[in-house]
Amino acid sequence: MLGRKKKQQEEAEAAHRDAEQAEQEAHKRLPQPKGQPTPRRKDQVAARKRPLVPDDRRAAKQAQREHMRQLREKQRVAMETGDERYLPVRDRGPQRRFVRDWIDARTGVGEWMLIVVLLFLFVSLAVPEQMRIIMSQFLWLLVLVVLIECWWVARSVRRKIEERFGEKEKGIRFYAIMRALQIRRLRLPKPLVSRGEFPA
Fold it and tell me: Which parts of the chain span the membrane according to its record (predicted)?
């Protein structure tokens, strides 16, 4: 649990650093207004200097907490709107956006797998042995169908990514499979396309 929280915090900080860096790069590219002197490097370095240990540690901790709270809120909104600047690193990039839209536009067997397994567990407690055996066989058949679907999704995603982007990112097929196995309502980032609305 602690490891997961630490990982989420690191991802949040990495996302914020990337967003800040992108904003700084964009700001640097803007031309200086006419009539104003170009800022000297010495002045810029001096403006960026901060003490290693802040004078008021309690205030610094409070500021850090507030900063992290704002960052988490931005990430939460990004998960709903698909804003690339504040998405976790694993969800960023045009290839991953394409995969999400393609998976969300289709209807698959895998997304119902969890619901069927839970239903089987509850119903199997209240049915006779013979019925339980039949349900168990049906469940194994469903698992086989889902495995075949996962193989087909991975193959299709690889082909579509290579056609559209040239070279696929590492882990993109696994990313597609994991999203295809999630219940649509519970997917994060949230689906931004309707069923049947495949990316052009």
Answer: 109-127, 133-154
